[in-house]
Amino acid sequence: MVGIQHNIYTNPETFKYFGLLDPRIARREIAAPGNWENSTNLESVVALKPDLVIMASGQSGAIEILESFGIAVFAVSPSNNEQLYEELLGIGILTGTESRARELLGFTETKLLEIREKTSHINKKKKVYYAWSGGRIYSTSGRSSRMHECFDLAGVENACPFDIDTPNINPESLIAWDPDIMLLWNSKQEDLLNARELSSMRAIAEKNIHVFEPAFFYDPHTLKIMYMALELHEVAYGDNPELDLDEFRKEIMTGLYEEKAKQLFL
Fold this sequence. Notes:
Elements (H helix, E strand, L loop, with lengths): L2 E3 L1 H4 L1 H10 L1 H4 L4 E4 L7 H6 L4 E5 L3 H9 L3 E5 L4 H14 L3 H22 L7 E5 L14 H9 L2 E2 L12 H7 L3 E5 L4 H4 L8 H4 L3 E4 L12 H13 L7 H13 L9
Parallel strand pairs: 1-2, 3-4, 5-6, 5-7, 7-8
Helix pairs in contact: 6-7, 7-12, 8-12, 12-13
């Protein structure tokens, strides 16, 4: 690996953990020529002479330029678990780690079935609204998104009724949906509490706001979304005697990071 996205270094919520997994990151030795979704420094990427660049499919212009230099690009943007699995396997094939990719997918499928067995008994579901990272409280995940699959796994209802991936909404819609719980990842509770236009909402008034932190353990863009589902289930319905969150987190992180995962719990 010759380059990573820049915000791995600049986001203090996740830098600590990436540094524990890879000492080169802790020492800031790996080049960081841009970010996942935008602002990639193409000259710096080309200078690294990579055999393969993995980047968001939305950077179509950057992809075209890199390919014109003869650099292979694998464009990704999973909106559901099936797409994520296909892309993970594709990365494994392209990087000569197909066996490990298939191992990760098998581990994930086993854990998802295990989680679903423990959360599928809910009949009266709590309604949940998820606000995007970085304080984007009116950007959410619709019913064709990975977060919707997370909600389904957790046994809760997605407050957003739109059958699309990433809708932007207005305050009036959010108030009308009246969710039981507001969810945040890589954002602060104050982002919601300081929104005066939402002060009449029941979830806001009662501070039924849950922040997934440390953010590293709950990244909804990765396989770690299964741990997010476990915690969401407990937030919504209280302790489940069949679930040990701490033990599940260690099992999931060990499955994903193998021996390196021990560094995350020191």
